[in-house]
Amino acid sequence: MFNIDNVSLRYENIDGTRVDAIQGVSLNIGEGDRVSIVGASGCGKSSLLYLMAGLVAPSAGRIAYNGRTMDSPHADIALILQDYGLFPWKTVYNNAALGLKLRGADRLAIRGKVMPILEELGLADKIKTYPGQLSGGQKQRVAIARALALDPKVLLMDEPFAALDFITQENMEKTVLHLCKQHSLTLVMVTHNVEEAVFMGQRIAVFSMPGNITALIDNQHGFDADFHKSPLFYRQCNLVREMMGGGVNAQ
């Protein structure tokens, strides 16, 4: 599905200095894969996600989606950010329906698509509520609903649960895994949380400075909501921490 081939990204500051955000990253992601990208702040994780979303172009190398070079946003790909991206003056329903409205869908078609998703996410009783009246977990569910309403094949998530409390974060992780299974989604999630990376990803790409993948860890497991209680989970967490500290390749 995604072929990321020796991709680099360089930013230029206002003063003319250049910053290499990503250097020579290569990664293949297949349909239905769940990939966690983990690493310290500022190591290029989010920049890679924006490249995959088609929001920025690489300075070198190539990103292809289903064989075609990514040079603009694609209808199959939904990006969900940490700050939710909700409009405070729109209700839950209108926030969830926004993408379909922008695509020109008619009112009945929008309702037929949005309401089942809001029901699936436990938001059917919040459709007239505004974002300022919601908890962090509820806001994140609205952002997910807006993405799912567009029938994406790929879900890109950038630190989606970082601002949530532990219990809400755990519940949202399970919700996303359930949605990936129900909607056959490919998931790429950026996080700095090792436990989250191991719980969510079937593969874990460890990012290190200066902006490259120093380890790619096989973490094959199903959609087991209790995986985080297993001995394998703790072994994998320790392995990821070791790779983050040592920068040694793992397959």
List the helices and strands and how they pair.
Blueprint lengths: L1 E11 L5 E12 L4 E5 L6 H8 L7 E6 L2 E2 L7 E4 L11 H11 L4 H14 L15 H13 L5 E5 L7 H18 L2 E6 L2 H7 L2 E6 L3 E7 L12 H16 L5
Helix pairs in contact: 2-3, 2-4, 6-7
Summarize the structure.
The protein has helices at 45-52, 92-102, 107-120, 136-148, 166-183, 194-200, 231-246; strands at residues 2-12, 18-29, 34-38, 60-65, 68-69, 77-80, 154-158, 186-191, 203-208, 212-218. By secondary structure, it is an alpha/beta fold.
Question: What's the tally of helices?
Answer: 7
Identify the CATH architecture of the largest domain: 3-Layer(aba) Sandwich
CATH third-tier fold name of the largest domain: Rossmann fold
Q: What characterizes the major β-sheet?
A: 6 strands, mixed
Distance between the termini: 20 Å
- The gyration radius over C-alpha positions equals 18 Å
> Strands of the largest sheet, in order across it?
6-7-8-3-9-10
User: What is the top-level CATH class of the largest domain?
Assistant: Alpha Beta
- CATH level-4 homologous superfamily of the largest domain: P-loop containing nucleotide triphosphate hydrolases
- Chain-averaged pLDDT: 89
SSE order = EEEHEEEHHHEHEHEEH
**Quick one: how many beta strands?**
10
Structural class: alpha/beta
Low-confidence stretches: 247-251
Total count of domains: 2
State the helicity in percent bands: 25-40%
Provide the β-strand percentage band.
Answer: 25-35%
